[in-house]
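Handoff note, outgoing to incoming analyst
You'll be picking up this chain. Sequence as last confirmed:
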Amino acid sequence: MPDIVVVDDLSKTYPNGHSALAGVSLAIREGEILALLGPNGAGKSTLISTICGIVTATSGTVTVGGHDTRTAFRAARSLIGLVPQELTIEPFETVRATVEFSRGLFGKPPAPAVVERVLRDLSLWDRRDSQIRTLSGGMKRRVMIAKALAHEPRILFLDEPTAGVDVELRRDMWAVVRRLADTGVTIILTTHYIEEAEAIAERVGVIAKGRILLVEDKDQLMQKLGQKELRVELQTAVPALPAEIAREGLSLSEDGGTVIYVYDRRGERTGITRLLSDLAAAGLTLRDISTRQSSLEDIFVDLVKENT
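Most recent structure output, in case you need it:
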């Protein structure tokens, strides 16, 4: 797929000297779901705000649909829908009027059918005449997405879209994001919930200290950096591992009841067969064996730790 957003060597330094972005380059493919992960203060929101034209970059360029965000701001911005972290909606206005007003802000003519479709897609149609103040936090989040989609953008930025939303509503929101992607909308989301990125993203970007550490297809990233963990539960706990079986990647749980072996599953020899033989030779009786694949959270934590 072609790139719909291209960020080239983008930097942002504030008057107090704080560098929020430092030479960020990023290409976002049309129609993909990209999750941008990073700790607090990593530069995620600054990057989104700069792409959307809310923050002016110190240097570098951004093009959206081929339009430079500085020289052709209106054309670029018309392609973007933005859902910020904050709930910035008029509490005494109705859901439908709120969404219609947002469409008008982009100079779009009234389109009741479009507004209805957006509200139905977000399960808001039954509440279309309700005042915003009567809605739950999760429903208000949906209204924010509806506002961002009212002018039919090709790109949707979701900045911490499920912050403060309970688990059930969070899963509902994931389903909404997938449905939007199925219609061809490009979606970029920032999140603190690693499982959110793991569940719905096609590619994952990691940012720390204003720099992009990597951007990879999620499955390839899991395969490339993910390790596997073998857990051997012992019949009887031991105070320490016998010296003759000690090796790299091998450890004992705090209670002494489980031997933990971390290995690269891509290697020609994992060392598992030898380990099991060594355990038996050392007189350790096995109760159970299980394996665990490294999660995206493990990979993220390790990457950030290496670069902070």
